[in-house]
Specification:
It is built from 2 helices and 8 strands. The chain is an alpha/beta fold. Mean pLDDT is 79; it is low at 6-17.
Amino acid sequence: MLGIRVLGSGAFPGMKGDVDLVTMLGECKTRGTVNSSGEKTISILKSMLEKIKKEAGHDKLPILPFQYKGDETVYVAMEFDILLWLVHQIEELKKGE
């Protein structure tokens, strides 16, 4: 199982995140904004990152998956320290093989 969608997220107070990924909590965003040059854009507000960090607490890693409307690729925004920690964990696991 990759993740569990949090039903009612955003509609009811106290519902945390959009996707519960066991060790991560994701707040998913899809945007279809196009700038004056015709390029797809997305704005990631600091408040979005702060909200998911608060909801994740100390039990989960806060991430913000996002994609551009009409595009199948999903990207993720997170604190750089979280990325470094994840890479370190992978390297430690490789040593144990």
